[in-house]
C-alpha cells in the first residue's frame, strides 16, 4: 500500500494513530463508506433492522455468566476475593463475536447497492461470520485466507464452503492473516464499484476502525447493563484478548469514560516475548503503517513488517487497531501478553472449572485473569468484580488442543 496519508483533515484519527494510508483509488470508496456510516448506520431504520437480526438470528443479548468455580481455582486460599463474570460471545451464532460486525457490514453493503462481498480471515471466524451473513442476505462472498490458516483451521474452511463462499488460499509471505488482508485490499482496489470489503477487526483505513467498534460496542453496552443488574455497580476491571482489537474495543467502549474501571488487553506472546516468535504488537511494536492505517506494528528499523506468531490464528497478526495504540499511549488501557502455553493451560482450566471450551484467542485473556484481578484488588484494597470477554468457543481449535494437551498429561 502507498505510504501517503490522504486524510488531511485528521478525521478518523485516534491521537496520532489511524488515518488512511492507501492508494488514491480507494479514497472515493472510503469516502462513500464514511458517508454511509454517518447517514445509514446512524439511522433508526438501519439500527432497528440490525438489532432485530441480532436478537432473532444471532441470539443476543448474550448472557453474562458468573464463573464461581474458575474464580475459586484462581484464588484457592481466598486471600484476595474477587467475583468473575464472563461475557458469553461464544454463544453467538457461529461461535464468536465476529458476527455482530459482519452482519452490520453486510446489511450496510446491501443498502449501499453493493453486489459482491470480499473478506479476509485468520482463524476463519470472520470468514464464517461473513459467509453466514452473505448466505442469509443473498450476496456472493469470497474470502481470502492465508494458506497456513487454511491448514490449521480446516473445519472453518469447510463451513465457509458449505455456506456458499469461495475460500481463496493466499500463499504469499507468512501465509497468515496479514497476507490475506493484503490480497483482499488488492481485490477491493480492482472491484470497488460493485464490491464491499468486509474487514473483520477494528483495523484498516478510516472509517473501518470506527465502523467495527460501533458494531462491536453492543458487547460492552449489554455488559454495562448486565453487570449493573448483577452487582448494582460498575465492574472494577475488564479484560479482553487483542488481535486486531475488535472484541476488546467492543467491550471497553462504554467503560473508557469511567475512571473507576481498570481495562486490560492481552496480546499473544507466542513462544515468549524474548523470542522472535510472538504477536505482541503493543508490547514490543514500533509506530508504523500497515493495511491502510498508522498504529503500532511489528517491524524492523526500516519499517519492514515482521512475521507474527501465535498458536491462535486470530491473534497471529503483526498489527493492531489504531484506537488501541492511542489507548496504550494515553495509559487508559494496560496491555499484557500471554504465551501459547499460557493459553493452552487456560483452556483446560476453564473447561474443567466451568464446562466451557474457550477459543485459543480467548484463552489468552483468561490466562491473565489472576494477574489482573490481583492488581485491581491491590489498587482498590477490597474484593473486586472482574469481567472477561469470552470472545469465542474452541470447537475450531479442537485438533490443536488435543495435539498439544495430550502429551502434557492433563487429559484423562
Ligand atoms: C478473531 C478472534 C479474536 C481476535 O480478533 P479481535 O478483533 O482482536 O477481537 C479473538 N477471539 C476470537 C474468538 C476470534 O475469533
Write the layout of secondary structure elements.
Layout: E1 13-14, E2 17-18, H1 27-41, H2 44-58, E3 64-66, H3 68-74, E4 82-88, H4 98-111, E5 116-121, H5 125-137, E6 141-146, H6 147-152, H7 154-162, E7 166-170, H8 177-191, E8 195-198, H9 208-231, E9 237-241, H10 246-252, E10 262-270, H11 281-284, E11 286-290, E12 293-297, H12 322-329, E13 333-339, H13 340-354, H14 360-366, H15 369-380, E14 384-390, H16 398-405
Parallel strand pairs: 4-14, 5-6, 5-8, 6-7, 9-10, 9-14, 10-13
Antiparallel strand pairs: 1-2, 3-4, 11-12
Helix pairs in contact: 2-4, 3-13, 4-5, 4-9, 5-7, 9-10, 13-14
Bound molecules: pyridoxal-5'-phosphate.
Amino acid at each position: 500500500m502507498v505510504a501517503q496519508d490522504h486524510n488531511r483533515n485528521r478525521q478518523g484519527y485516534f491521537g496520532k494513530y489511524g488515518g488512511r494510508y492507501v492508494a488514491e483509488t480507494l479514497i472515493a470508496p472510503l469516502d462513500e463508506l464514511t458517508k454511509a456510516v454517518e447517514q445509514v448506520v446512524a439511522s433508526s431504520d438501519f439500527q432497528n433492522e440490525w438489532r432485530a437480526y441480532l436478537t432473532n438470528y444471532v441470539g443476543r443479548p448474550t448472557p453474562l455468566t458468573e464463573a464461581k468455580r474458575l474464580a475459586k481455582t484462581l484464588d484457592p486460599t481466598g486471600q484476595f476475593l474477587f467475583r468473575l463474570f464472563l461475557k458469553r460471545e461464544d454463544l453467538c451464532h457461529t461461535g464468536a463475536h465476529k458476527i455482530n460486525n459482519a452482519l452490520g457490514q453486510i446489511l450496510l453493503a446491501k443498502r449501499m447497492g453493493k453486489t459482491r462481498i470480499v473478506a479476509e480471515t485468520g482463524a476463519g471466524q470472520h470468514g464464517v461470520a461473513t459467509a453466514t451473513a452473505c448466505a442469509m442476505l443473498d450476496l456472493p462472498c469470497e474470502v481470502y485466507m492465508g494458506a497456513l490458516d487454511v491448514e490449521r483451521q480446516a473445519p472453518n474452511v469447510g463451513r465457509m464452503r458449505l455456506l456458499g463462499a469461495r475460500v481463496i488460499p493466499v500463499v504469499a509471505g507468512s501465509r497468515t492473516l496479514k497476507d490475506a488482508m493484503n490480497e483482499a485490499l488488492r481485490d477491493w482496489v480492482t472491484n470497488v464499484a460493485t464490491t464491499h470489503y468486509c474487514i473483520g477487526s477494528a483495523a484498516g483505513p478510516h472509517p473501518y476502525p470506527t465502523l467495527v467498534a460501533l458494531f462491536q460496542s453492543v458487547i460492552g453496552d449489554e455488559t454495562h447493563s448486565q453487570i449493573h443488574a448483577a452487582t448494582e455497580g460498575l465492574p472494577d476491571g475488564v479484560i479482553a484478548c487483542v488481535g486486531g482489537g475488535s472484541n476488546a474495543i467492543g467491550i471497553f467502549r462504554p467503560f473508557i469514560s469511567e475512571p473507576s474501571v481498570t481495562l486490560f488487553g492481552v496480546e499473544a506472546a507466542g513462544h515468549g516475548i524474548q523470542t522472535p516468535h510472538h504477536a505482541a504488537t503493543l508490547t514490543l511494536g514500533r509506530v508504523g503503517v500497515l493495511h491502510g492505517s498508522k498504529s503500532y506494528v511489528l517491524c524492523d528499523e526500516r519499517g519492514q513488517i515482521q512475521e507474527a506468531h501465535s498458536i491462535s490464528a486470530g491473534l497471529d497478526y503483526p498489527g493492531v487497531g489504531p484506537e488501541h495504540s492511542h489507548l496504550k499511549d494515553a495509559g487508559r488501557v494496560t496491555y499484557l501478553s500471554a504465551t501459547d502455553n499460557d493459553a493452552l493451560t487456560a483452556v483446560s482450566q476453564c473447561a474443567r472449572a466451568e464446562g466451557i471450551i474457550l477459543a485459543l484467542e480467548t484463552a489468552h485473556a483468561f490466562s491473565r485473569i489472576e494477574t489482573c484481578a490481583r492488581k485491581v484488588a491491590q489498587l482498590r484494597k477490597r474484593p473486586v468484580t472482574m469481567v472477561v470477554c469470552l470472545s469465542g468457543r474452541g470447537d475450531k481449535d479442537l485438533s490443536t488442543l488435543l495435539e498439544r494437551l495430550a502429551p502434557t498429561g492433563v487429559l484423562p
